[in-house]
């Protein structure tokens, strides 16, 4: 009798009730490998028995009970997922019984080896070792303990006996290896799923941060321009009858402010446009548009730039523009009629310094009254970039002083 052949279908138990969760490359969605293994074992046993009988090496007639012995083992393999121990016991009993009426041959070991391999893939190490030990002990007892009662032609030699033991041990070993591989694949799938969930959560956080940034930008745009429109509308109404030319200038400023507001809103919301839409035509918000900002401020503004102007990081440039814009908005809201302002931009080696000062303030501000939410918003924007903002009354006015790191060094 020779050892069992390599059984390619025996490696298909990668998922199932005892084989762990489904993994990539498993048989989910395909034909059940248990059916294929049973059919293969049946063909091996029927064809092997027929060939052996044709050579005169089966010593009984093929009565129904002999056919039943050849068929019952492969049929039991169909139930090995739910009842793996019973399937191994049935296949082993049928094969050993048939082996007592035929010369030693490897074909009758196919069904028991598949059942034992499956026991190993189920993770039932103790059951597989105990089952293999019991099967091998029964084999030795039958063919070596009762040699005198059996036909000499069915008795195995030492070589065949050793091969049976090696085949049983090999089936257990391969089943254990398949089990480990299945668990590793399942763990890999779990890690990949967790990584995918982490990436999705990161994308959600980034989307939330982007929405918050857009909300802040919209707050700055709308707050600035609506404040300017409100001031100019009040001026226009006040001068409508007495000074119509100045009222016309106020209306012109309102028109300019509303147009600029629409452009900036479109620019802010441009991040939400689809890939097929055209890119914005207006330059990005930054200190390069400081002259336009101060010209439309609705009050006299003096601008001064010191240091060597250079290209700033986009987030710093945009934050500087927004802080100046919010500071000028606060001047219009709180400084009172006749207020003037000055904006100083100082390019230092590693930071950008902004100073926005107004020359006339109301008593509440001079006395340290509540500045509202504008200062808090500017401070939060500066701190988000690692900068600082100080604001408070000074002689004859109110000062906002900001330091924004640029990450550069000369």
What does this structure look like?
The protein has helices at 33-54, 64-77, 84-99, 110-121, 125-145, 158-239, 244-269, 290-295, 314-334, 363-366, 374-384; strands at 301-306, 341-347, 351-358, 388-394, 397-405. It is of the alpha+beta class and 410 residues long. Among the domains are: 33-156, no CATH class; 287-362 and 370-405, 2-Layer Sandwich (Heat Shock Protein 90). A five-stranded mixed beta sheet has the order 1-2-3-5-4. The longest helix is centred in the middle third of the chain and has 82 residues, at 158-239. It starts with 32 loop residues before the first helix and ends in a 5-residue tail after the last strand. The model is unreliable at 1-31 and 363-371 (pLDDT under 50). Keywords: ATP-binding, Coiled coil, Kinase, Membrane, Nucleotide-binding, Phosphoprotein, Transferase, Transmembrane, Transmembrane helix, Two-component regulatory system.
Compact description:
The chain is 57% helix and 9% strand.
Key features of this structure:
alpha+beta, disordered N terminus, 5 strands, Heat Shock Protein 90, five-stranded mixed beta sheet, 410 residues
């Amino acid at each position: 009798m020779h050892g069992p052949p390599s059984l390619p279908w025996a490696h298909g138990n990668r998922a199932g009730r005892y084989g762990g969760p489904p993994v990539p490359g498993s048989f989910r969605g395909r034909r059940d490998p248990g059916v294929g293994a049973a059919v293969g074992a049946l063909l091996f046993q029927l064809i092997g028995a027929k060939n052996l009988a044709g050579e005169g090496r089966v010593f009984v007639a093929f009565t129904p009970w002999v056919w039943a012995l050849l068929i019952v083992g492969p049929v039991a393999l169909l139930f090995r997922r739910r009842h793996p121990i019973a399937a191994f016991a049935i296949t082993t009993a049928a094969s050993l019984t048939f082996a007592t009426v035929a010369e030693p041959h490897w074909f009758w070991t196919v069904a028991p080896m598949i059942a034992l391999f499956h026991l190993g893939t189920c993770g039932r190490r103790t059951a597989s070792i105990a089952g293999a030990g019991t099967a091998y002990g029964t084999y030795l007892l039958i063919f070596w303990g009762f040699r005198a009662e059996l036909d000499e032609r069915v008795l195995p030699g030492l070589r065949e006996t050793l091969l049976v033991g090696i085949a049983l041990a090999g089936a257990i070993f391969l089943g254990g290896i398949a089990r480990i591989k299945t668990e590793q694949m399942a763990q890999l799938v779990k890690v990949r799923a967790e990584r995918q969930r982490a990436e999705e959560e990161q994308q959600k956080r980034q989307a939330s941060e982007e929405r918050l940034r857009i909300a802040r930008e919209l707050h700055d745009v709308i707050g600035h321009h609506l404040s300017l429109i409100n001031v100019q509308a009040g001026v226009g109404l006040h001068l409508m009858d007495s000074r119509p030319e100045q009222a016309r200038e106020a209306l012109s400023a309102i028109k300019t402010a509303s147009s600029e507001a629409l452009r900036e809103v479109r620019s802010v919301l441009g991040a939400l446009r689809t890939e097929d839409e055209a890119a914005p035509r207006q330059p990005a918000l930054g200190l390069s548009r400081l002259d336009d900002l101060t010209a439309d401020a609705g009050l006299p503004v003096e601008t001064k730039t010191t240091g060597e102007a250079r290209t700033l990081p986009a987030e710093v440039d945009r934050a500087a523009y927004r802080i100046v814009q919010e500071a000028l908005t606060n001047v219009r809201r709180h400084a009172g009629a006749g207020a003037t302002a000055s904006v100083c931009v100082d390019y230092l080696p590693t930071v950008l310094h902004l100073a926005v000062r107004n020359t006339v303030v109301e008593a509440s501000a001079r006395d340290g009254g509540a500045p509202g939410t504008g200062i808090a918003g500017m401070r939060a924007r500066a701190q988000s970039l690692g900068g600082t903002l100080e604001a408070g009354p000074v002689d004859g006015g109110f000062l906002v002083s900001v330091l924004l790191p640029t990450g550069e060094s000369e």
